[in-house]
Design a protein that fits this description.
By secondary structure, the protein is α+β, with helices and mostly antiparallel strands. It is built from 5 helices and 16 strands.
Length: 282
């Protein structure tokens, strides 16, 4: 994200929609926060803490508290980024601190260090309140609604866990629950996505349409058709499989992604082996 951009993510709505099709709408800041990976969540918490502190201090500045009590110092993360802005600067320009990031991914807050700043009145009140809520409350209280998926994704992978998405509601249908170290985590990426124009469902009754393409080398359509059939892993009860793969050499656990949300393969396929599409139920 560039310096000239506000950190709060605005998800644009694709303009072209096919007749009779319903695409997921844009995510709010809160929804973006609540569907984030562990990596993104940590960034959100850092930003919201900084802006929450600024919100409190700025409100005091605007009430006219003496300047010697209004110097603002905001520290981010390990303290390597620390900036000061005195109360006079706020009173004169009605400025407001807002978090952002450089193109290289460095996080910052504060115009006192030459960073991005917006005038106080340019920040919508609901946006400020939303950030302050994230700052004040723990994740479980903020994210009371179900997490939502990125637009047009039928599934995504964050370097640790795979999650499936309901195209109609935008909510998660399942997520694996593998624990990973921070070094393993990465920004979520779609492993399967739909055409942004939302193709109509061509499948027969009882089948599930899988539009779009798979972007992960480890997940394959099964069978080779846009319409899914019912496949189940040994010992599991799945309703509709969103994708499947078997590996050579054979492992005891083939990867299956279940729309029903049941726990899937615990150890996953052998990623060092050659993965091939699985064309038939096992």
């Amino acid at each position: 994200m560039k310096v000239s951009q506000v950190f709060v993510v605005v998800v644009s709505v694709l303009a072209v929609l096919s007749e009779g099709c319903s695409c997921p709408g844009p995510l709010t800041t809160k929804e973006e926060y609540c569907q984030a990976s562990f990596v993104t969540l940590a960034k959100f918490k850092s930003y919201s803490a900084a802006t929450g502190e600024a919100e409190f201090k700025v409100s005091h500045v605007l009430k006219g508290i003496p300047e010697d009590q209004t110097t603002i110092n905001v520290v981010v993360g390990d303290g390597s980024i620390s900036c000061d802005l005195d109360g006079e600067g706020f009173l004169k320009n009605r400025r407001y601190l807002i978090a952002g990031s450089t193109k290289e991914g460095r996080y910052f807050v504060n115009t006192g260090c030459g960073y991005f700043v917006r005038r106080w009145k340019e920040i919508p009140l609901p946006q400020r309140r939303e950030w302050f809520q994230i700052y004040k409350l723990v994740e479980e209280e903020v994210c009371k609604v179900e997490r939502q998926c990125p637009e047009n994704c039928t599934s995504y992978f964050d370097g640790c866990n795979q999650c499936g998405c309901d195209l109609e509601t935008g909510k998660l249908t399942y997520c694996t629950e593998r624990f990973c170290s921070p070094e393993e985590l990465e920004e979520p990426s779609c492993t399967s996505e739909i055409d942004p124009n939302c193709n109509p469902n061509p499948c027969a009754e009882g089948e599930t349409y899988r539009p779009g393409k798979n972007l992960s080398e480890y997940v394959y359509d099964a069978p080779a058709s846009p319409c899914d059939t019912v496949l189940c892993n040994i010992g599991e009860t799945c309703e509709t499989i969103l994708g499947a793969a078997v590996c050579r050499p054979f492992t005891t656990c083939a990867q299956v992604l279940c729309e029903a949300g049941v726990s899937v393969c615990t150890d996953g396929p052998d990623r060092d082996a050659e993965c091939i599409p699985n064309p038939v139920p096992w």
